UniProtKB/TrEMBL annotation, chain A:
Pfam families: BPD_transp_2 (PF02653). The keyword Transmembrane helix applies. It is a multi-pass membrane protein. It comes from Paragemmobacter ruber. InterPro entries: ABC_transp_permease (IPR001851). The lineage of its organism: Bacteria, Pseudomonadati, Pseudomonadota, Alphaproteobacteria, Rhodobacterales. The chain crosses the membrane at residues 12-37, 66-84, 96-112, 118-141, 150-172, 202-221, 250-271, 277-296, 303-324, 330-349. It is found in: Cell membrane. It comes from the Bacteria. Keywords: Cell membrane, Membrane, Transmembrane, Transmembrane helix. The keyword Cell membrane applies. This is ABC transporter permease.
UniProtKB/TrEMBL annotation, chain B:
Keywords: Cell membrane, Membrane, Transmembrane, Transmembrane helix. The chain crosses the membrane at residues 6-28, 40-59, 65-89, 96-117, 145-161, 192-211, 217-236, 243-263, 269-287. This is ABC transporter permease. It holds the Pfam family BPD_transp_2. It comes from the Bacteria. It comes from Paragemmobacter ruber. It is found in: Cell membrane.
């Protein structure tokens, strides 16, 4: 008979080992799924995880993409992880990402055709503000009216998507675009572009921001009183209240921070890799970042690695759909599966599995 | 009787159709939450129900089997949630989100061969002369059987929760799993069954979208209906009849904005399409504010995992 025994404190070994175990299990289950789709599972897994980095033919294109895709994922996931640690669930990062891009791009386009290098920094600031503002709506509703932030932040994504559609068809549409939806191409306007800084690396300002944010979040959580309060509020909400941690302040801070970072990611994306505001410029980074945050165990360094891995599945997925005809949706299911396995094996961190009958209680 | 090109009888009739998916999914979630489990994967289960139901109906040619398939498909997905949260004690919020992300991916994977196909038609229930009554005929007696089933399901859930031993046990498990466990009830088993029931109902709701309401298959067809169902449960303060009310309110707004779009109202389409979500948020705010009116009714053990240490 198998039973679970709660560990006195989470196992340090399993804390690091579970993400790796989850990735391996996902590869096995994903392989089975690919086999059911009639693809060679070994080849599919190799195409996703190995070829983008080491295949001579594709690596020169794929390697820079790794940073391009990982940048926004890491930026968003670090922000989300702070809230998740405190038990504050912002799952509307996708909406905040869209609004950040809209705000930032809107300011840039309003100033068109000003040619000064201050336009881009201004766009970043306004983009951050846009994401922050969008996250503040669920945050304030939560603190003022006790509304569930999970539902509101998620519903706000649908509203943001409609605003995006309206903007790319109306206000922000390229007046010289021949009536096609979508804004001017920001990446081709020097004052507004977020260019590749070192050719062939994929490094743009968003990636640099992601690295800075990882370090800042690490310091915040390890060395700063606020980081301590965040961890305390998540693990022992009652104790946190007695210790004078204001839940209201924490909600506003965590939601605001994650929104600001998501907005920043959106702006860097729209001014760089994506280039323009269009109806479907958002590709779900805000949702995938939730998986990244958990895969990185809500730890900034872990998120850095998890973001790179998740970026790899995006690139590998594209390669696999190009090479093997693997449907793009299969990758989405694959990523979802990863979160399942992660949550499942997390059991090992907090519980021991015991075989045999139970001993007498002490 | 015409109001700016909108016929009220047709409006109410289509309102009832529009709210069926939400009623079913919200009722399922209500039972799950009454058992103390917060399953945020309603959206994922609905869309799995939508594609499984659609595929079954297209393959067998029978919409009835389609609904069965939808319920089964979504129940299978909810079983994953049940195992993860009840057996492996995973965080319910995170697992629910995973369910939605996975469901969206898997459904579009399954649905690849079904884009652009028409499903077999589900006829209206023949109620004979009743359907010919002016105004009340089209409003009440000219619907497919799922509309009536959704109302019946509402009554059934209400009666079971309020008057039966089963309902009492379910509520006990949701209010205090430790007490229920001490009384000898199998907390985990009851919760798993509740989750499966919730999954099946969400699947029925999803299948209704792809088989009757739209009716065709496109990726992301549920468009947030699962999240709205979750919000409706809060709006309803965990009371079945209020679910019906909330869903009709929501359905009314959806239908009204669609009619306004069709009638060529001056408001841009995008702002009309976002109105259901806006109203849902507004309603959530109203219900949650003031001395925590809605929260007072929430099952006490909602979202807490149960591990029998003794």
């Amino acid at each position: 008979m198998i039973r679970l025994e709660k560990r006195p404190s989470p196992s340090a070994f399993w804390q690091w080992a579970t993400p790796i175990l989850a990735v391996i299990l996902t590869m096995i289950a994903g392989g089975i799924m690919f086999a059911m789709l009639g693809k060679n599972p070994v080849e599919a897994i190799r195409t996703i995880f190995w070829d983008p980095l080491f295949n001579e033919q594709f690596a020169s294109y794929s390697r820079p993409q790794l940073l391009v895709k990982a940048g926004p994922l890491i930026l968003i996931a670090v922000g989300l992880s702070l809230g998740f640690r405190a038990g504050i669930w912002n799952i509307g990062a996708e909406g905040q990402y869209i609004m950040g891009a809209l705000f930032g791009a809107g300011v840039g386009l309003a100033l068109y055709p000003v040619e000064t290098r201050w336009v881009f920094p201004l766009m970043v600031i306004v983009g951050v503000f846009g994401g922050w503002l969008w996250a503040m709506i669920p945050a304030i509703l939560k603190t003022r009216f006790n509304t569930n932030e999970i539902l509101v932040s998620l519903l706000m994504v649908y509203i943001a998507q409609n605003i995006l559609a309206s903007m790319s068809l109306g206000l922000l549409r390229n007046p010289e675009g021949g009536g096609f939806p979508g804004s001017r191409n920001l990446s081709q306007i020097p004052a507004m572009a977020n260019p590749e800084l070192i050719p062939g690396t994929g490094l743009h300002w968003g990636v640099i921001a992601a690295f800075v944010v990882v370090i800042a979040a690490y310091i915040l959580l390890q060395r700063h009183i606020l980081g301590y309060q965040i961890k305390l509020a998540g693990q022992a909400p009652r104790a946190a209240r007695f210790a004078g941690v204001s839940p209201t302040r924490l909600v506003l801070l965590c939601m605001g921070l994650s929104g600001a970072l998501a907005g920043m990611a959106g702006l860097f994306e729209v001014a760089g890799p994506s280039g323009q505001i269009s109806i479907d410029f958002n590709v779900g980074y805000g949702f995938t970042a939730i998986i990244v945050a958990f895969l990185g165990r809500l730890n900034p360094i872990g998120i850095l690695l998890a973001g790179l891995l998740m970026a790899l599945t995006y690139i590998g997925g594209e390669l696999a759909s190009f090479m093997l005809g693997l449907p793009a949706a299969a990758i989405q299911a694959f990523q979802g599966m990863l979160l399942f396995f992660l949550l499942a094996v997390d059991l090992l961190t907090n519980f021991r599995i015991r075989f045999g009958t139970r001993k007498e209680a002490l | 009787m015409d109001l700016g090109g909108i016929n009220p009888a047709i409006l109410i009739a289509s309102l009832m159709v529009a709210s069926v998916p939400i009623i079913l999914a919200a009722l399922g979630e209500l039972v799950v939450e009454k058992a103390g489990v917060l399953n945020l994967g309603v959206e994922g289960m609905m869309i799995m129900g939508a594609i499984c139901g659609f595929a079954t109906a297209v393959i067998t040619g029978s919409p009835y089997l389609g609904f069965l398939g939808g319920a089964l498909g979504a129940a299978c997905l909810s079983l994953v949630f049940a195992v993860l949260t009840q057996v492996l004690l995973a965080n319910q919020v995170a697992t629910g989100l995973a369910l939605t992300l996975f469901g969206l991916g898997l459904s579009s994977l399954i649905g690849q061969g079904y884009v652009g196909i028409k499903p077999p038609l589900t006829g209206t229930v023949p109620l004979g002369p009743l359907a010919d009554i002016p105004f009340f005929g089209p409003v009440l007696f000219d619907h497919d059987w799922m509309v009536y089933l959704s109302i019946a399901a509402c009554a059934a859930v209400w009666a079971v929760l309020k008057y039966t031993r089963l309902g009492l046990i379910l509520r006990a498990v949701g209010e205090s799993h430790d007490a229920a466990h001490a009384l000898g009830y199998k907390v985990v088993r009851i919760r798993i069954l509740a989750i499966l029931f919730g999954g099946a109902l969400a699947g029925l709701g999803g299948a209704y979208i792809s088989l009757i309401r739209v009716p065709q298959w496109t990726d992301g067809i549920t468009a947030g209906a699962g999240w709205i169902a979750l919000a409706i449960v809060v709006f309803a303060s965990w009371k079945p009849w209020r679910v019906l009310l909330g869903a009709y309110l929501f359905g009314g707004i959806t239908v009204l904005q669609l009619n306004l779009q069709a009638a060529g109202a001056r408001i841009p389409v995008e702002y009309l399409s976002m109105s259901p979500y806006l109203i849902t948020i507004l309603v959530l705010v109203i219900m949650s504010s003031g001395k925590g009116k809605a929260a007072l009714n929430a099952p006490a053990a909602l979202g807490q995992n149960f591990h029998a240490s003794r």
